[in-house]
Batch of 2 targets.
Target 1
Amino acid sequence: MSRTGGHSHAQARWARRGDIALRVLAAVPLGYAASSLCAMALARLLPGTRSGTTVAAALIGLALCAVLAMWAFAARSGWRAVWTISVAGGVAAGITWLSIAVTGRA
Amino acid sequence: MSCATVLLCICGFLLFGLATEAHHRRRCSGVLSARRCTAMRAAGWSSLVAALLAAVIGGGWDFGPVRWTGAVMLGAGAAFLLLNFAPAWICYKRRQRHWED
Amino acid sequence: MSKGFRQSQGFLHTWSGLLLGWILFLVFVAGTIAFYREGLNRWMRPELARVENPMRVLARAQTYLAHKAPHAKSWFIPVATRQSAGSQLFWVPQPDPNAPKGSGRRGGRGRRDTQALIGADGKVATVRETRGGDFFYRLHFDLHYMPVIWARWLVGFASMMMLVAILSGVVTHKKIFRDFFTLRRSKGQRSWLDGHNAVAVLALPFHLMITYTGLVTLMALLMPWAVIANYTDERAIGAVLFPTMPVVERTGRAAPLVDLRRIAADAERRLGAPASSIQVSEPGDAAARITVSQSPISTLNTRTPQLGYDGVTGRLLWQSPPTGAAAETAGVMIGLHAGRFADAGLRFIYFLCGIGGTLMVASGLVLWTVKRRERLPDPRHPHLGFRIVERLNIAVIAGLPLGIAGLFWANRLLDIGMRNRAEWEIHWMFIAWAIAAIVALLVRPRIAWQIVLGLAGALLVALPGYNAVLTPRGMLDAVASGDFMLAGIDTAMFVVGLALLLIARRVALHRSVARPGRRAPSASSAHEERPTL
């Protein structure tokens, strides 16, 4: 986790709390959103029957929630966790939107 | 539930456990050399594989692996309890020899 | 793996395990007990005899329904088995066109006047009203005293935290397989750590499976987005994943319903497996249809095949189509979670693993306080967080067993003719639990543990005695009649009660490591070898 050398003790404590707060933000609301968006993208992209890919994507989405939460705490800093997960979610959202715009839904 | 599967799993985990330093010292004679450790672990893995075969033969490929997984956990738990709670005199110590295995 | 990564996952493991750990404890306890829900359905209705002839129960169920609800919209008849209490059937009345919208029936479970239990003798069971073992099944995901949607979101969220705790726990444990058999006794924090590791790692396949598959059972609620991405109407995918026989409009022409035993026998022959439930739509009408579902005992997939018959002629009309690999996978996952396919031996392993999971959660929660107690600057005045966790641990880990013991005693002692008896049994569980929580709050922790655990243990140990003396299904009677399920439940209660008493005694005899005024007593043992966490 990030170290804040050269600050006073209290400042270091608040910096650490801020870092953890960012990671929690990355893990829970952002992580769930990104996992859901990835599930949507996978549902559109995976090969197979429509119902099959939907179920498979949901199963993967659930596992992804846990993995992203672990990533949020393994990342080198809280900010890094927030923006990497946000970007992942954004890319998935873009893919999903494009796919629905092109082929539509059942 | 196949008894053979469970028993083979218990044997396998007992072998794994006895291949660790502390338990080997407590219950076996001789030093835990690298060769003996490898041999015991290989025997342990063989036991687990045999248990899987027994489970699949008994229950088919759908129920077999499920029963095997159950037996593996049961075997691990039983071996853990036996190794940690069985009285100290239950051990395999050969009479004093002048050379090590 | 780098040290920073392992440390970060260790931190994550501690907090994702702790924050909702008490909810997870409840889920594990209730879920573990629910593996024996059918047995408890019988245990909590000691007046009932064992089902010997399931087909007779089915015939009498049909007669009963034809008499009681001849013009219902549909009947649901579970086929009784030797393990079940009987046939817990219910029916859906015709929708009333004059009733204002939204005033319709609340849900199948709640209404008392549209359900009945047909016992082994074929008669409506006039036994004590109770939710039986099914209560524990519902408790572990619907909780109680709250709308089920909230409960499922809470349990789902907690389960995700559990999954994160398991995965991060595996990652952070440096020598997970080398420490496999390690158990250092009487060494305070290290012993708790070894115990926590033992119950966690030895049944790790089960813990991973049950947590992830638990999330899968709530998939429609927690991850509906994949459906939204592919479908504009969620009913479309429902029709594919859960195919049902095409609905037929009621004709208004009366026609006698064919004998359901004939249908059940034909279905079992075609399926090559027992039937578990029979649904009749528009009974007594010319358009009656019967759907027979295969029993989950015969396959891992919880979504079993179904057969559809004409209700008047008994002709086979419809077979459920296969649903594809992904749906099969999800069905198998849910099947593994529920374990309905498990025979006696495998069910007992499920139960033992569930107890392992319960001990894993409990030991983790206690380990948190043990670890921090050794580091407290002033053990007589711990910080607020420590005090909260310490008290909650007693209130939940000791309090819930007391509550459950209270439930079982209420089941025995409450007046048979009491109104809302089933609900009152459950109220008594929460009353007993609340009393334990008050004790946990007001009394010194060490004494509180002993009181609550001791009381819970004593109540559980006494139950088989009560059964033997005051019910017709005591231990000796059960064994004599070959009813090993009831004997087993009595035994389990006694063993768990005894274990609680022994733990209470252990607490009483325990000499605490840190004495007030001494700082960091474990500094001297810091150089000892220890598994990381």
Target 2
Amino acid sequence: MVPAAHMCFRYSLDYMITMRLSASRFFLSFIMAATLAACGSGESNVERGNREGILHVGNGTEPQGLDPHVVTGIPESNIVSALFEGLAVKNPYTLESEPGVAQSWNISEDGLTITFYLNPEARWSNGDLMTANDYVWSWQRALSPAMGNQYAYMLYPLENAEAFATGKIDDFSQVGVKAVDDHTLEVKLNAPTAYFIQLMDHQSTYAVHRPTIEKFGKATDRFTPWTHVGNLVGNGPFRLKEWQLNRRIIVEKSNTYWDKDRVQLNGIEFYPVENISSEERLFRVGQLHYTNSIPLDKIPVYRAMENSPYVNAPYLGTYYYLLNTNEPPLDDVRVRQALSLAVDREQLNNTVLHGTNIPAYGITPPGTLGYQPPKVFDYNVARARQLLTEAGYPDGAGWPGLELKYNTSESHLKIAVALQQMWKDALNIDITLANQEWKVYLDSVDQMDFQMARRGWIGDYIDPNNFLDLFLCDGGNNNTGFCDPLYDDMILRQAPRAASREQRYAIFAAAERRLMEQMPIIPIYTYTSNQLIHPSVQGRPSNLMNHVNYKYITLDSNWQAEE
Amino acid sequence: MWRFIGFRLLQSIPVLLVVITVTFFLVRLAPGGPFSSEKAVIPEVKAALEEQYRLNLPMYEQYIAYLADLAEGDLGPSFKYPGRSVNELIAAGFPVTAELGFYALLVAISIGGIAGIVASLRPNSAQDYIPMSVAMIGICVPSLLMGPILILVFGIYLEWLPVSGWGDMPGDKILPAITLGSTYAAYIARLSRAGMLEVMSQDYIRTARAKGLPEWQVVVRHGLRGGLIPVVAFLGPAFAGLLSGSFVVETIFQIPGLGRFYVQAAFNRDYTMILGATVFLATLIIVFNLLSDILAAWMNPRLRSQYGGR
């Protein structure tokens, strides 16, 4: 890449030289040269950023807000995690938990009590010391029904937290969290929860600054201006400096942060670039250090480059079709299996998806902190035809028809059309496609008003439980009618009581096997993160959650463009 | 003239009320709600959210409460952006959209006006066909194609101008203004050509020529005033169209204007934002139509006398 400013100057200079200017033309050229010089009046963001230690980030959409107990999206959490810090954070290389506000923690023998020891140096960005009571107050806020926190369930492993969040009890002192002293927080769990420490890195479990929130309204008010510039008090490595709606959010290094010596960046600028083609162009001219995404048709171009900035890595998400098991013909497990076995996932991935994803044969993404999903079935047309015959539709005879619903999007359409054709070719059955606008589709799925529907699930934390508990009998995101008491027992009772990680994963594998034998869903592919990362960015490794820990990031100021 | 303005202002009140009412009920009747989300929302959370936004009340009560707030100029809190009021979002986005629209209009008038006048001077010659063909192409090429083409040529290959942004780098306002203005330039070219052709065949133009005025004076002093009336009448709706239709350009060029908020609001079922932006833009459209009618009346003596003013 060549810095825009230099190109600009060079062109204008060349222009003036080659034109062999006459006096009358000189004035015209002067104006032109002035315009040209103006176009690149400085370095690109990346060059300047590398020099000044400012990271420029393409961040998808304008964040809904910055209140950790209100926001739900990934663009929001990218910013919130710079402004706040949880009790524990994640190492971006291993995704294992590391000390955050808590300098250490202790898990009791029975796994039911966790004691967090807060770092006495941990401070709010206004200088106030952080205390264990900040957490008690904040978790009450996060769990209060009036708060309308859609991620309140991240705290459900706490004793009585669910009862409080659903209004069954009003007394927060019954919930399993208490401040033993200023720097000791004691947590009681319903059941041993292997991933509980990980949840401390989720915005829903962050502490918020009580005096600031109460200055602007009630604890549970959703729309007070406490998160605006000048008001927001956080406890993260950065603090909010500027927020221009739909333009940019700038954060600067906080000098009250306990681990400020580790923080190499002086600031981060987040740009809400919704249009992924625009984002790619911004990256190309050196305005962004990394993008949020990349247009599918640009991937081959970037792949062909030497030292390509294109990064493709497995992501903690699964793309699948929901099957409504309450309604014929999908109430017959053989039909469900036939449909799934007739899908050639490798071919789909290599053609429609440009080989960017990973074919999926289970609900859990592979390598979820060491867990590998069992492969219960494979692409097998002969077996699929046999199953369909057994179900009473030999070579598609008597097939009652089936409708697939998906939310309007070109990529969902392409996949649906490819599968429609595969089912026609392999099983001689007709599937009709119905697209719906996003919110309409969400209602259809929620009310199970479909036969087959597209679905994607992105993990909130890295544990097989986060995918497998979707299909509990009363799982709010089950949406298939699937209900297996033994499966529920494995997930809810056996796995939490397992003696070791290996044993726990073996129980999960057995449960996933059961799930895939009954096939209430057709897994299609595991998501990957696809983005462009400038080579001067260091300390931002690919990981399953595309998780960024800004403390680890450094910018190579010596990085030079290769001409 | 004052009677005319007063009459038009009175007319606009029921128009606005109809717009508000229809929008208010239509957005609420649309399937899917502001709180539908991919992850299941438990009933307690949903109830709490609905209460905070008055959605638990019967619809007519919501409507009356909304009108009461509106009368005080309060457009309510945004559903999508908690912590921001609709007034705040409009105040943040509108100046940018207005500035963009203004530049685009300048582009449209200068390019379109000149092309149309030039074309009209020698009808059915190359001087007519070439600008008019270009204008036709301008109408046909949508901004979602025009924008990326301009970016590729001037932003990426020539590296003369920034590929996006608004007020961040010198020159970053040029490409968006041209992209947005080009469609309207084409319309204006066609309107001004037609207007000029009609005027230039009038008797008073022949009289002007007969008394020996140079041709350029005939065109500038006598032709333009009559010939550009259709253009002026078009400016009001055009500016309103530029303001409400800048969404695509704002998205392509990363411009923090109102258009992006408006369209996103519809996708998000952000009821208050949809309503607020609609009411706001409807008011603007009414005002601009009125202004352009007044301007056209001022330029056209026949209309002026019709409304009994001077």
